[in-house]
Amino acid sequence: MSSEDAEASAAVQRQWDVIVIGTGSGGKVAAQEFARRGRSVLAVEAHRFGGECPYVACVPAKSMLAAARVGLSWPDAVRQRDDITDNRDDAVGRKSLDHSGVTTLRGRATLAGPSEVEVADVVHTAPVIVVATGSTPKIPPLPGLDGLDYWTSDVALSVHDQPESLVILGGGAVGCELAQAFALLGTTVHLVEIADHLLPAEASWAGEALAARLREDGIKIYLGQEPVRAGRSDGGCMVELADGTAVRAERVLVAGGREPCLEGLGLDDVTVDARCRVVGPDGTPVGGLYAVGDVTGVSTYTHSANYQAKIAAADASGQGRDANYSAVPRVVYTDPAVFAVGESTADGPHTRTAHIALDDVERALILRHACPPGRNARYKAASS
């Protein structure tokens, strides 16, 4: 079914087995999983079908990192980024849903009542509704920040003009990936993290090891420093830290985490149980209402969203099982990559972590002997 036919079908049909609001990682998998089970599914998307990952997040970030590793120029890196993201055109993402038997509808959805979703003044009904509206960048209440034309990650991964210098607020996965990509492509990068080590959700030694590599890439890192004020300075931007240090750059990039996207949905917050059912203040499931992905606040990783989508589909089909996040992987795609599985050290005092040297792992040995001299030789130390 073409996108135009899907729009026409959605305009006529108003009763469905399942309605999915949002088509990012979790929403797309949920819609396809229900369709695979023979349900009639309407997927509503307010922005891009496929969510942010293919267009302004995961995919372009990895593309820019890959370009930087092999020494491409900024213009070539941008061309590669735009080509691999189809210039942020979501036609392919929408077709993949259509071909899965999912009816797609572009528009902003509001929960109008029990089992009711309103889109463009039309009410659609379904006994099962899945909220998968994702998240938005969390903007810190930093005095003076509103007066700057600051970037968020989606802007940083869409621009064509390279900044001469950049100060990044936040040393989590997104901040570290973008810091390395921009630095290796020639931008002077300052990375500010409030915690005492990068990747604060992970074990401290992982953040410390990554910080050592980022410093080798020329990145200036400020740890244990809270920004207290922002403003303009010499035609650019300035961020003042708690110890009085003034960090100046052409641009400011906010990468301090994300928060659930609930705008216009009709929900004040979303809390889910172990089966991804939305629950009320007393912990009782709200009949037929599920939530998956970033909007749940459980995890901001794609693998978690996909896993939750399958948990929700199984429960709504009478095959319920509790989610267990102890084996969900996560990766920071820097060089070297930081990867983990299971709970993080931030999850509680009973978490145990372990690490081994990778010097003699086969992939490290192959890269050590295969990579040519020059920038790619940085892989020789990637196993340390």
From TrEMBL:
- InterPro entries per UniProt: FAD/NAD-bd_sf, FAD/NAD-binding_dom
User: What are the residue boundaries of the FAD/NAD(P)-binding domain, all occurrences included?
Assistant: 17-308
Alphabetized Pfam families for the sequence = Pyr_redox_2
Q: What is this protein called?
A: Pyridine nucleotide-disulfide oxidoreductase
UniProt GO MF annotations: flavin adenine dinucleotide binding; NAD(P)H dehydrogenase (quinone) activity
Q: Which organism is it from?
A: Mangrovihabitans endophyticus
